[in-house]
Design brief:
Blueprint lengths: L3 E10 L2 E11 L4 E5 L6 H9 L6 E6 L2 E2 L10 E4 L11 H11 L4 H14 L15 H13 L5 E5 L7 H18 L2 E6 L2 H7 L2 E6 L2 E6 L1 H6 L4 H6 L6 E5 L2 E5 L4 E2 L9 E12 L4 E11 L5 E8 L9 E6 L5 E3 L5 E2 L5 H13 L1
Parallel strand pairs: 3-8, 3-9, 6-7, 7-8
Antiparallel strand pairs: 1-2, 1-4, 4-5, 9-10, 11-12, 12-18, 13-17, 14-15, 14-17, 15-16, 18-19
């Protein structure tokens, strides 16, 4: 079993605080993705769990056992790095069984374990090959197999797909999802790529400057963000955010209509198309809104993702957003939800009616 619990975790490098009083529980068998921009603390947090960069203070539990003072080898974890860290002079078989040999696992048992794991990750035909004879995806599978053969309670994966090309990353994402479903083991996966987080996670842990911004399943993270940071980090392009008095209004580019036939007209603005990008089934527009000021004090510009490809650069248009697709945030950029604060939410709606 592999539940992970972090209590009041702090991490400092000298006088610089990277993580302060962080609390997080990752359930047994969960695929949790730690996501955020570079320097947000996600890899530092993973290294704390692994034991290769201990916390400055706080407590770490794996399956209820306090492991803060245990070395990595005694934590029942396995880690997969972005650079694979496989031995170039060894065969695939040699790489997979290296840790088993060090742990003095009998040869017959080693052979059985290696062959079982190689079959799961599709490496059986390559067991006699050296890493130089493999593709990037196959080398990543070797790193996964070497971790799997230990049968750990927890897998820690530090941006394992970042060195692969876009097409292969997509294929490997699917393989990792299937692998997690097959093993039923706890996965903690670090990435800066919100697409990876959205496509793979049971639960996303979104970090910024060492603090958790939101913990939620992908669908909740996208449809029900807690704050402006989450709203703009999750989603491509990011959510449009506009000042609304001392508060903020948000709406997603894909929920904007450029024609009244596709919108209820509750939020309506005249605009002009500044740029147009054809994406195949969708078109991405940048639209300048007339008589509207953006967060920077200049004329507001928004992004629109639309199935309608017929608008041209320089063309006048009308922007429409349905009432149910509007989000409101307070002056601290925290979410204002109707069910939590109906009065303030209604005030925000009234402000839109007056503009």
């Amino acid at each position: 079993m592999g539940e992970i619990k972090l209590e009041n975790i702090c991490k400092s490098f000298g006088t610089t605080k990277v993580i302060e009083n962080l609390n997080l529980t990752i359930k047994d068998g969960e695929f949790a993705v730690l996501v955020g921009a570079s320097g947000c603390g996600k890899t530092t947090l993973l290294r704390i769990i692994a034991g290769i960069g201990p916390a400055t203070s706080g407590n770490l539990y794996i399956d209820g056992e306090e492991v803060s003072d245990l070395p990595p080898g005694e934590r029942d974890i396995a880690m997969v790095f972005q650079n694979y860290a496989i031995y170039p002079t060894m065969t695939v078989r040699g790489n997979i069984e290296f840790g088993l040999i060090n742990n003095k696992v009998p040869k017959a048992e080693r052979t059985k374990l290696v062959e079982e794991v190689a079959e799961i990750v599709g490496l059986t035909p390559y067991l006699k090959r050296k890493p130089s004879e493999l593709s990037g995806g196959q080398r990543q599978r070797v790193a996964l197999a070497r971790a799997m053969v230990k049968k750990p309670a927890v897998f820690l994966l530090d941006e394992p797909l970042s060195n692969l090309d876009a097409k292969l990353r997509g294929a490997m994402r699917s393989e990792l999802i299937e692998l997690h479903q097959r093993l039923g083991t706890t996965f903690v996966y670090v990435t800066h790529d919100q697409t990876e987080a959205m496509s793979m996670a049971d639960t996303i842990v979104l970090l910024d400057k060492g603090a958790i911004q939101q913990i939620a399943p992908p669908s909740v993270m996208y449809h029900d963000p807690d704050n402006v940071f989450t709203a703009q980090f999750i989603g491509t392009p990011p959510m449009n955010i506009m000042p609304l008095g001392e508060k903020f209004l948000g709406y997603r580019p894909e929920r904007v209509a450029l024609d009244h036939a596709y919108g209820d007209g509750f939020y309506r603005k005249a605009g002009n198309v500044l740029t147009r990008e054809m994406l195949g089934s969708e078109t991405l527009y940048k639209v300048a809104l007339e008589n509207t000021v953006g967060s920077d004090g200049k004329q507001a510009e928004i992004m629109v993702k639309s199935a309608d490809w017929k608008f041209k650069v320089g063309q006048a248009c009308e922007v429409y957003v349905d009432k149910d697709d509007l989000y409101f945030f307070d002056s601290a950029k925290k979410r204002i939800r109707e069910k939590e604060n109906e009065t303030v939410h209604r005030e925000c709606m009234d402000m839109i009616n007056r503009t």
